[in-house]
Write a structure and sequence with these properties.
The complex is a heterodimer of chains A (525) and B (314). Chain A has 525 residues and is α+β, with helices and mostly antiparallel strands. Chain A has 15 helices and 21 strands. In chain A, a hairpin with a 5-residue loop joins strand 4 (74-79) and strand 5 (85-90). Chain A starts with a helix and ends with a strand. By secondary structure, chain B is mainly alpha-helical. Chain B is globular. Classes of the chains: A alpha+beta (525), B mainly alpha (314).
């Protein structure tokens, strides 16, 4: 070998010896609140699927940390002077995970599929005359009459979120699950690595083009700072806590409240309040059957209940709950105590007096009690106690949540397999206004289980949908709340939060009503 | 003769499986809960739920549903999961390795510890060793497997940091990681089987040890170990093998708690998830599979007798 060749070889070896090693991949291992079984966030409202949607898809608009709707995929949204035409122009450089550009046609098809399933979308579409594609980056929404609902609906943070999909996917019948998981979000779903009951895997989408502004809530620049996110299914809470302490996972989305003291003691773990608005407990009436067919009897429940007892029984630590006498979450733009000031203070005498006025004959209230969900299990016994103190007779029937879900859809009389009441929880992002709040739908047969039927509430909700002045929206929301004290559809039983638990080398989690993984960094492996 | 016996036993599984199939089908449909309502979600209307029920075929008469399902089973089609939207056979295939691995490790551990313990206890009948083995086996029966599991996790995973808390690694992804993750769950699960097998072994060996041929073997001058292994154990084996066989069959179906505590994605967890979600096709298929395994293991155990005891012939 010639000296020159030898020298070149030596040089190459020297360079190779000092070359930096290939960057190691960062993987964030997370235990979410549930296992991912379904992957179509339009087909189902399940929160885990919504969270999956935020990984893989993007939205035209999104809600920021102040609760304001901001453009996300949209570069510009112009409203005509007569308020009847929205012209939406997409940002440059938006790509699907298969490399094809996102087009206006994709967006129009996606809006249609979403609106076919979502109640707020359905409401929005009652105002829509037509949607037209103007050019590959621009589309128009033509309205029959002005409404403030369009941006609120297209930027709604929770299920069903109007995620954008390629037209070929969005053309799928909304009652059939999609089989193609192509999105344009900051992560790609690794369907080949998905093992339901074990793990779901997401890889950073290198061609994602984030907005330039900093991230805020669900809006702003979505920068994926980890290469991989793995959602691990660990059904046993104690095991997931042990795994976090041992460093085998990096984050638990919703550790149960009774295990928080264990986590907070560990030197390598921190607790973080990510969803500052949290959730709201709710008592739902079935108005079809005696005695709750009588509004006055339902009003008595307003007087019998108080929020503190429920929150103490389930959450326990006041750091994680708050009494909030408002249907619209405290800390949200429409928060108000109008009409509820004197209520929810357990004035049992007043409750009994109302029952007497209403002619309550002692019919036992069939109260469904779900036993297997930690965040709900203690609610019904508290409700039973307070109702009985308030003069009601109560027949509490215990069952697992899935049985409750099946039974609550029945309209049969309570003594024949039906029900009078049950308790549940809504995430705050789902109840921010009277149109979005499903339990306020008082459209009789068109309403959700419970089937309230009240023209005044429906008229107020229609007014809300039509109103374009944000200042007047609050007045209408207050009117809905006041009306609900006379015609109770459901009762708000307090607000609660559940912090996430993270290893201390994980940072950047967004304060948002949904757990998202852009901006999250993990130092070290 | 053996082949005829085998054929008879295999044919006899058909009515057994038919009874199991009928029972599980009816039981699921009699329990409360509606898979269509669960799938439809919280904001679904009655019309949405009805549409899903129709798509799943749940609005057909029960006899028709049963006939369709039986016909599919006969063709080897176990159906499609209501929730996962995947073939149930694929779901089971995905989950069978962890469960089998856990079951095999558990039974190997159990036999390796329990048989010698039981033999020693019988050989030293009445001594402190015998009493200790009996006391430990009572403890083994009494302490729930999840308590043992959590205790092992605390000591070996969190305090000592020797082993992982949870998870499963496939054999194809590396033997070291595969075994490392199976140690704690296998030990936790094996405790009750060690207790059971040790006790049966002790009783069975005690019975045989007083036999004339054992006395003769001793009188001939054979070492104690040779007497135990060549004469006593072989003759005591039938009840021991019976219990081991029952243990394997129960293990396959009984790993649920261990799989949950140690987060092993096996058939046990699949069954629990499917039951809670009212995923009828998955529950039906898994119960049928477990029943088939139980029947086949019983058959294998019966066939083993012919090797252990030449007097047993079919």
């Amino acid at each position: 070998m010639t000296p020159i060749r030898l020298a070149l070889l030596a040089l190459a070896a020297l360079v190779a010896a000092h070359a930096s090693p290939a960057a190691a991949q960062t993987t964030l291992r997370v235990v979410m609140h549930s296992d991912l079984k379904i992957v179509d966030p339009i087909w189902t409202t399940a929160y885990i699927v919504r969270n999956h949607g935020y990984m893989v898809y993007d939205t035209l608009f999104a809600m920021d940390a102040k609760g304001e709707i901001k453009p996300q995929m949209v570069d510009r949204a112009d409203l005509s002077a007569d308020k009847l035409t929205y012209t939406m122009t997409l940002r440059d450089g938006l790509l699907w995970h298969d490399g094809k550009p996102v087009t206006a046609e994709d967006c129009v098809a996606s809006i249609k599929r979403w609106a076919a399933k979502d109640s707020m979308g359905q409401k929005m579409m009652t105002f829509v005359k037509d949607m037209q594609v103007v050019n590959p980056k621009t589309f128009r929404i033509l309205l029959k009459e002005p409404t403030g609902l369009v941006l609120q609906a297209l930027g709604k943070p929770s299920s069903n979120v109007p995620f954008m999909m390629p037209k070929r996917v969005a053309d799928t019948d909304p009652n059939t699950q999609i089989k193609d998981f192509t999105g344009s979000g900051p992560f790609v779903f690794k369907a080949d690595e998905w093992k339901p009951g074990d793990k779901a895997v997401y890889a950073k989408f290198a061609q994602y083009k984030p907005r330039s502004e900093p991230p805020s809530g669900l809006a702003g620049g979505k920068v994926a700072k980890v290469d991989r996110v793995e959602w691990r299914a660990i059904p046993d809470h104690q095991t997931s806590v042990n795994a976090l302490i041992n460093g085998e996972i990096d984050m638990i989305e919703s550790p149960p409240h009774d295990l928080l003291p264990v986590l907070s003691k560990d030197a390598n773990v921190k607790l973080a309040q990510l969803n500052l608005l949290g959730g709201q407990y709710t008592f739902r009436f079935n108005v079809l059957h005696k005695p709750f067919d009588n509004a006055k009897v339902r009003q008595a429940v307003w007087w019998a209940f108080n929020q503190e007892d429920f929150l103490k029984a389930v959450i326990g630590n006041p750091q994680y709950y708050k009494v909030c006498k408002s249907f619209f979450p405290c800390g949200s733009p429409l928060e108000t105590t109008r009409g509820l000031e004197a209520l929810l203070e357990s004035n049992f005498e007043k409750s009994k007096a109302l029952l007497k006025e209403a002619g309550y004959d002692g019919t036992p209230i069939v109260l469904m009690h779900s036993t297997d969900l930690v965040v709900l299990a203690n609610l019904a016994p508290v409700a039973k106690d307070l109702l009985e103190k308030g003069g009601f007779k109560v027949n509490m029937q215990s069952m697992d949540w899935q049985t409750l879900v099946a039974r609550r859809s029945k309209k049969d009389p309570p003594e024949a397999g039906g029900w009078h009441a049950f308790l549940t929880s809504w995430t705050a992002a789902d109840i921010l206004n009277p149109v979005m709040t499903a339990f306020f739908n008082a459209g009789c047969d068109k309403a959700l289980f419970g089937w309230p039927c009240d023209k005044e509430i429906e008229s107020l909700r229609d007014q809300y949908a039509r109103e374009t002045d944000p200042a007047k929206l609050k007045t209408i929301a207050e009117a809905v709340q006041v009306r609900a004290t006379h015609y109770p559809t459901h009762l708000p039983l307090g607000q609660w939060t559940q912090p996430a638990a993270l290893r201390k080398n994980v940072d950047g989690n967004m304060n948002a009503p949904v757990t998202v993984f852009w901006n999250v960094e993990k130092k070290g492996r | 003769m053996l082949y005829r016996y085998l054929a008879r036993r295999l044919i006899a599984t058909i009515p057994v499986m038919a009874v199991v199939a009928t029972f599980v089908f009816l039981l699921l449909r009699l329990t409360t809960g509606d898979p269509a309502a669960i799938i439809a979600g919280d904001n679904a209307t009655a019309a949405d739920v009805a549409a899903i029920r129709g798509k799943l075929g749940l609005d057909r008469p029960i006899v028709q549903q049963f006939a369709i399902w039986l016909g599919n089973i006969a063709r080897g089609d176990l159906g499609e999961s209501f929730f996962f939207k995947r073939k149930v056979t694929a779901l089971i295939a995905d989950r069978i390795e962890p469960t089998l691995s856990l079951a095999v490790c558990t039974i190997v551990l159990a036999v390796l510890f329990a048989v010698p313990l039981g033999v020693i206890a019988a050989w030293r009948h009445g001594s402190w060793i015998d009493r200790a083995v009996m006391a430990l086996s009572v403890l083994g029966f009494s302490v729930p497997v999840f308590v043992i599991g959590y205790s092992l996790i605390y000591v070996f995973a969190i305090y000592l940091g020797w082993l992982p808390v949870q998870g499963y690694q496939r054999l194809a992804d590396g033997f070291g990681g595969f075994i490392e993750r199976l140690i704690l769950p296998s030990v936790a699960l094996s405790v009750i089987y060690v207790a059971l097998i040790a006790r049966i072994t002790r009783t069975s060996v005690l019975e045989v040890m007083n036999a004339d041929y054992v006395r003769t073997a001793r009188a001939k001058g054979l070492a104690d170990v040779a007497v135990l292994v060549r004469h006593v154990l072989r003759n005591a084996a039938v009840p021991i093998v019976t219990v081991i066989g029952l243990g394997i069959a129960l293990l396959i179906g009984g790993v649920v708690v261990t799989e949950s505590v140690f987060s092993i994605p096996g058939l046990g967890r699949l069954t629990v998830d499917a039951v809670l979600a009212r995923d009828y096709p998955t529950v039906q298929a898994v119960v049928l599979l477990f029943s088939m395994v139980y029947v086949l293991i019983n058959l294998l155990v019966d066939l083993t007798y012919t090797f252990l005891d030449p007097r047993i012939r079919y």
